Amino acid sequence: MKDKDLRMALSEYAGTPDYMKKDAFIKSMRKDMNDVKVSGLKMVLTQARYIRIYMWILSVALLIVTLFSSGKTAKNVMNIMTMIMPFFAGLGVFEAMRAKMYKMFELESVTLLSGKGAFFARMVAIGSVQFAVITFVSIIFSRSMDSGVIMIAVQLIIPFALTNTICFILERTSFGRDNVWSCLAVSGIVFVMRETIKNMPGILKIDHRVFVLLAAVLLVLQAVEFNKTVKMEKLAWS
Q1: How far apart are CA 182 and CA 206, in angstroms?
Q2: What's the DSSP call for residue 72?
Q3: Which of 160, 150, 127, 167 is nearest to 211 (CA)?
Q4: Tens of each residue's pLDDT in the chain, 238 residues
Q5: What is d(CA 107, CA 89) in angstroms, rounded to the nearest whole number?
Q6: Sign of torsion, CA 34 37 40 46?
Q7: What is d(CA 144, CA 139) in angstroms, rounded to the nearest whole number?
Q8: Are the C-beta atoms of 212 and 154 separated by less than 8 Å?
Q9: N or C: which end of the chain has fewer CB within 10 A?
Q10: What is the rounded distance in angstroms from the CA atom of residue 132 to the CA atom of residue 62?
Q11: DSSP per-residue string spanning 36-63
Q12: Closest among 77, 66, 73, 208 to 139, alpha carbons compared
């Protein structure tokens, strides 16, 4: 029997679940778990164990490359880092939303931590490491390139925060929730936008304070959109 035939046979045998009963079961489980108290730190540490190792390897790799970049190569490495940032952000959102890609969202909805915000915990765990990497990289490159920490950080934060902001908005749409990989497409679009804007004539003449302001605005927008996404996750089966 072919895999396709086996899947069809299993589907016909199992039948279609009663969505009303399933919904009632999930709500009852979430109600029973409301009395169980779980600290925010425990949530984050628990969910961090379920984040795939490639996210941590990528973070460590960026740190190692930064440490071993000399004064002569620092500028080129820094440029590569800014090019990577959209994908660094996109992969983080993708990993936090992975349960939807594997159709495990409903199962997560009846676990203790999902009732308290599993998406929030995963995103905080990933985001904390990502911002630590950005801070570390900014400090190291500011010494190697004789440039200010803030300006180095701004170059990394703008594509990173823009990608996160768009991904959070997209993931709240029906298309985004059904196509979790779309956040990586957003990363590609932000990458192309950055390269296009970077090569525009006169871009280097813009006052640096404009870029600092833009980075600050994007960080605020990222926080706002993240909060909206977390609220949507908590209300999904309430």
Answers
A1: 32
A2: T
A3: 150
A4: 566 666 666 666 655 666 566 566 556 655 655 555 666 677 777 778 878 899 999 999 999 999 888 777 888 899 999 999 999 999 999 888 876 655 555 555 545 555 446 778 888 899 999 999 999 999 988 887 777 899 999 999 999 999 999 999 998 888 887 788 899 999 999 999 999 988 888 776 788 889 999 999 999 999 999 988 887 765 444 4
A5: 26
A6: negative
A7: 9
A8: yes
A9: N
A10: 11
A11: S---HHHHHHHHHTTS-HHHHHHHHHHH
A12: 66
Lookup: tokens for 229: 């996404």
The rounded distance, in Å, linking the Cα atoms of 159 and 190 is 7
Q: Which residue has the tokens 């605020």?
A: 220
- Is 158 within 8 Å of 214 (Cβ atoms)? yes
Residue type, 159: P
CA distance 47 to 173: 24
CB atoms within 10 A of CB 236: 15
Q: 107: Cβ–Cβ under 8 A, 6 or more apart, which residues?
A: 99
Q: What is the rounded distance in angstroms from the CA atom of residue 211 to the CA atom of residue 229? A: 26
**CA-closest candidate to residue 159, choices 128, 123, 134, 124:** 134
The one-letter amino acid code at 190 reads V
